[in-house]
């Protein structure tokens, strides 16, 4: 019997101005061990606090994704026995659903023998998710920029060096589903505003490439695509940002759809700030997170 082990990273999307387009993989993981189920039924064992309450049968999101992927190639997905552990809190803006989606696709790829490359898996992942900002870094690692064109179902991605900064995630104890946080966004933007915010986004990326973190940070905090509409859903956001900027942060932005708040800061200053954030915002968990460079990893074990 063969067992597949997956280690699937979390991600932080948007980085302020890169709505639905920019994301970075983080060293927090969904870890999965899977083998064929003897009784041909799906079984899930969820370990740790974050996965409690998820279904333990074929209603599971991961099962549905695996079945969707295999059906697309006219194959059938065998039932699996899965053991999962995660340190990615759900519905906090750290890409837990993208990690689950990528898990489902990698399981389908291996157990239904689809033989898809990472590039092809990314195409599939983005087609399901609708935007590549979480799934692309989750699959490839690092900082990824991407665009999905639904008319031709094509995703193109590009990479830049990971920023040489420390990253602090301030994670509230309450959940905010991406679905809810997308409902507060406007349907349209004027041409004038679209030009302004894409110019800000372009400048942010160029500054990141040049390791000019002061300018990149300044641009990140000028977002007009999503942050102004979502801030009211995260009552501590402005106070966290004010404190971080007092402590010398380059930028503080909403991570993904929130409610996690992400701060980029010089390595020399991050320790002091993370302790102060923990002290001042005791209902949140503030932690230093490192950037994951390699994306999802998989190992096959012969039992
Ligand atoms: N490991 C997982 N297995 C199954 N479903 C998951 C898993 N992780 C996340 N999900 C689903 O995704 C939802 C959270 O997705 P979402 O609102 O997009 O937030 P985020 O992706 O920012 O954590 C969860 O409530 C759950 O339904
Ligand atoms: N671009 C999306 C990203 C959602 O990320 P998540 O981690 O909150 O699922 C959005 O901002 O809606």
TrEMBL record:
ATP-binding recorded as keyword: yes
GHMP kinase C-terminal domain mapped to chain residues: 204-281
Keywords of the record: Amino-acid biosynthesis, ATP-binding, Cytoplasm, Kinase, Nucleotide-binding, Threonine biosynthesis, Transferase
Ranges of residues in domain GHMP kinase N-terminal: 61-142
The UniProt record lists the keyword Translocase: no
Positions bound to ATP: 89-99
Top-level taxon of origin: Bacteria
Biological role stated in the UniProt entry: Catalyzes the ATP-dependent phosphorylation of L-homoserine to L-homoserine phosphate.
Protein name as it appears in the record: Homoserine kinase
């Amino acid at each position: 019997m063969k067992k597949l082990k997956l280690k699937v990273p979390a991600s932080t999307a948007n980085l302020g101005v890169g709505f639905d387009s920019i994301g970075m993989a983080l060293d927090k993981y969904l870890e999965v061990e899977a083998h064929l189920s003897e009784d041909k039924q799906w079984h899930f064992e969820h370990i740790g606090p974050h996965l409690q309450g998820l279904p333990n049968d074929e209603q599971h999101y991961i099962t549905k994704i695996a079945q969707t992927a295999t059906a697309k190639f006219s194959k059938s997905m065998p039932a699996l026995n899965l053991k999962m552990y995660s340190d990615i809190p759900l519905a906090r803006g750290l890409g837990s659903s993208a990690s689950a989606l990528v898990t489902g696709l990698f399981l389908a790829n291996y157990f239904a023998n689809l033989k898809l490359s990472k590039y092809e898996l990314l195409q599939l992942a983005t087609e399901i998710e609708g935007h590549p900002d979480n799934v692309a870094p989750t699959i490839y690692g690092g900082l990824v920029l991407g665009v999905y064109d639904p008319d031709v179902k094509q995703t193109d991605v590009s990479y830049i060096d990971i920023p040489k900064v420390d990253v602090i995630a301030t994670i509230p104890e309450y959940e905010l589903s991406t679905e809810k946080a997308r409902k507060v966004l406007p349907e349209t933007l004027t041409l004038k505003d679209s030009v302004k915010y894409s110019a800000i986004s372009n400048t942010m990326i160029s500054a990141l490439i040049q390791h000019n973190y002061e300018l990149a940070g300044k641009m990140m905090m000028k977002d007009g695509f999503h942050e102004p509409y979502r801030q009211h859903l995260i009552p501590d956001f402005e106070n966290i940002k004010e404190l971080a900027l007092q402590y010398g942060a380059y930028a503080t932005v909403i991570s993904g759809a929130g409610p996690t708040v992400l701060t980029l800061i010089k390595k020399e200053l991050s320790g002091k700030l993370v302790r102060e954030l923990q002290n001042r915002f005791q209902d949140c968990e503030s932690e230093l997170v490192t950037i994951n460079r390699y994306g999802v990893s998989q190992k096959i074990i012969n039992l």
